Amino acid sequence: MSDTKISVLCENTAGGVMGITGEHGFSALIEKQGEKLLFDTGQGRSLQNNAKFMQVDLSGIQDVVLSHGHYDHTGGLPAVLYPPRLVNVTAHPGIFQNKYAEYPLPGGKTNVFIGMGYSYEYLTLGLFANFNLQSEFCELKPGIYYSGQVPRETDFEYPDPHLKADREGEIVTDTIEDDTSLLIETDSGPVVLLGCAHAGMVNILNHFSRQTGHEKFHAVIGGTHLGFFEQGEKLDKSLQALDDYNVDLVAVSHCTGQEIAAICYHRFGERFAFANAGWSKTF
To answer: E strands of the chain, at which residues?
Structure first.
């Protein structure tokens, strides 16, 4: 009997459930043996609406994990915390770092703030969030594992040069050390849930393999960030890793991009799914 359901509440596109909307962002609900855990919260524009049409009661969620400190993964957090009540929020300690995206303009480049839009004080004192700022691998719930900070070991997965961070007053390329993911043990096998995979999808899979001993993953779901890079070694080796780990289901979202999603569809065939808002799967 299947014991785990994963539902995508926020994603760039919408489908499968009438009434839901798309937005640039990501959020997924994990339901496992009576427990509910929300992974990311999108921008905050569609979470409440989509939860309503997907019959998800946000006020019943007591546990949230934020994959990293970008607005499109954290903006909906107040909607989960309101009305104010104690909600456990797990994230890397770097989640509140000031983050930017570099955009070209006719007169030169400019940096636009894309970090967490709410302060720690507002979320904790005003909305009663109970932050667990954790950089180490750990088991959050029975059968649900948090990656913690992922070692960057591959030579072909590199930071997006357009993403910046404020380091002691200097704007530098953001290596996004706060990027984290989840591994969920299911009756079908281990499932990896990605926010944006800024740490590198292969680095993440290798890290979970070392930490848990798994040499095969049943599914990889979420944002891969492959859509922001030129096709080449990074894409080829990343997709090969999914075959090397014998992944049965490749369900891409968000920052994967439509072109890379199409490449994945042609490569993986029946093993492919597009995990847009409204998509769900029971394992």
So the answer is: 4-10, 27-32, 35-39, 63-65, 87-91, 99-105, 108-113, 129-133, 138-141, 144-146, 163-167, 170-173, 182-186, 189-194, 219-223, 249-253, 272-274, 280-282
